[in-house]
Each structure stands twice: as structure tokens, then as C-alpha cells.
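Researcher: Following up on the earlier apo prediction. This time include the ligand. It's pyridoxal-5'-phosphate, with the SMILES given after the sequence.
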Amino acid sequence: MNHQLRVYNDIFEMLPSEENPSPLVRINRLNPAPEFALYAKLEWMNPFGSVKDRAAWAMLRDLEERGELGNGRGLVEPTSGNTGISLAALARARGYHLRAVVPNKVPLEKKILLKIAGAELDVVSDELCPAPGLGDGSINLAKTHAKASSHRYVMPNQYENEKNVEAHLRTTGPEIWRQTEGRITHLFVSLGTCGTATGTARFLRGQNPRLKVIAVQPTEGHDVPGLRNLSQLDVSRLFDRSLIDDLLEIDYKLAYTRALELCQTEGLLAGPSSGLILEGARRILERDRAGLGVMIFSDNVFKYTANMVKHIPALAAGTQA
Ligand SMILES: Cc1ncc(COP(=O)(O)O)c(C=O)c1O
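Model: Understood. Below is the ligand-bound prediction.
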């Protein structure tokens, strides 16, 4: 393994760590406060394309170390896509199988990617799982499989698994602290399982108790995959409200328009959850005019072309002969 030359013996060596951090890129044209240095941490540069590589790897390794995998036993996990894609690719590269339980409303791109990565799909109907993010329906179904077929499946359960938080305590937090040379004043995150927010904030607060943590949530009825509104957050055991200074609720449609602006103004091909974070950061920068902020951009726009067209129909213009 040589991080400088970027030569690796296998894909596992490419997973992010303090020695191999995901990049921080400064926001220039979309920054409303020139005295405030605003950076995006590009999690889509991780080997399987999202922030979820961190939690998936930590949970998989833990199960492996505890002897829970192998001899025909693989994984079952509820996912809105990203955890499943990371987990499927990692599991297959280790010789295990993954059954991914996904709500029907997850974008088709993600369902196909899950299959390409080698997952077996279990799609949960809209009645059982009305939210596009992870719903109780998919969590319960995954639990049922894990219980009824325990010889075939073990369930990491990203909503309750402390390894999800630990992954960010050990990697994302230390990476940011080092990359900003301890100068970070604001952390901007979105909330799904809350592993990213809790783990990263816990580490950075330990270094600087005055650090401000800002979390964004989409308005109710949203269709931003991976994210949760506060009313949907009780499924996560990992949410720690005491670490969050500002919890902003933002019109979910702005997730899409801000993502497009990031693509077309900063050259950052960010997905909708990153768009929502940018909107939150811009609001805070109008208030706190100076500092150094880091936004965790969980994934890129490639998996959301259909959702982007749904919200910005003009994108479809001129695409047919
Ligand atoms: C696109 C996207 N953004 C943000 C998140 C939130 O991350 P976390 O689950 O660590 O709260 C997720 C989680 O699945 C996601 O898929």
C-alpha cells in the first residue's frame, strides 16, 4: 500500500482513514461570506461512492472478527442504497452474500447499482414503507429474515450499531481535524442513521468544545434518499441531540436546486443531500460571518438523475432526438 503513489494490493486498502482522507474542497462562488472558509468533504471519492463506506467497513469487520460470517452465512440489511452498495461490494470481495431490503421508493438507479454490486434485492411495498428513506417496514423485514434464517443471515443494523458511530470517531473526525489543522469552527451534516453526525461531532467536540454542529433535515413528505426528517428519527438509536447546536428544517425541494447549483457553479457533482447541507450552511454563514466550516457531502448526483429530472423538468429538455 502506498498512499502517495496510490498503489494498492486490494480495494480494502483504499478505504478512508487519517492517512488516506477523503478530499476537502473549498466552496468559492456559492459562498455568501468571503471571511468564512467553507469546505466540502467529498465522500463520493471513497471506493464505493459514498460516506457509507466507513460504516459498512466498520460493521463488516466487527462481524468478521466476532466469527459471525462465513460457512454460508452472509448479511441482511435494510438500506436506502448507499450502505447496501458499500456493504454488497465489500461483502462480495470478502466472499459473503448480502440481502438488501429496500423501500420501493428508492431510486431505480440505486436498486440497479445494488444488484450490480452483487446484492440480492428485497423490495418493500409503499404501504409497508411509505418513506423514501429507510422505513420501519424495511427494518422490520430485515429483522425477520435475520431471526427466521439465522444460519443464512446476520444483520449489522446500521440504526443501532455503535460501529457506525465508531467509524466516524476513528476516521471522519480525525481526518477533518488534521485537514483543517484544528481550525474548524463549524461542522455541517445531514441525518440518516445519524452515525456520521454523532461520530464526527463527538470526536471534533472532544478536540474543541466550542465547535458548532449544524444538522439539516428535509421538510416532512420529502423524497431525499438516505435522509430523515425529525419525525422519522426515532428509528435511529444513534441520534444524539446534545451534540447539535442548530437543527435546520429546510424545504426538501431546495436539496435538488442547490445540488444543481453545486454541479454547475462549483464543478462539484454533488447529490441532493449535499445540496440540502449547502443551503443550511449558507443560512448559518449569513449569521456567523467568519470561521472555517466543513460540510460532509455524502454522495454524488449520479444515482439521482431521475429525481433531479422530477424536480427540475427542464433537465429533460433536448434529450430526445
Ligand atoms: C445520500 C446520503 N446522505 C446522508 C446520509 C446520512 O448519513 P448517516 O446515515 O450517517 O446519518 C445518508 C445515509 O444513508 C445518505 O445515503
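Model: The chain has a mean pLDDT of 94.
Researcher: Noted. I'll compare it with the apo version next.
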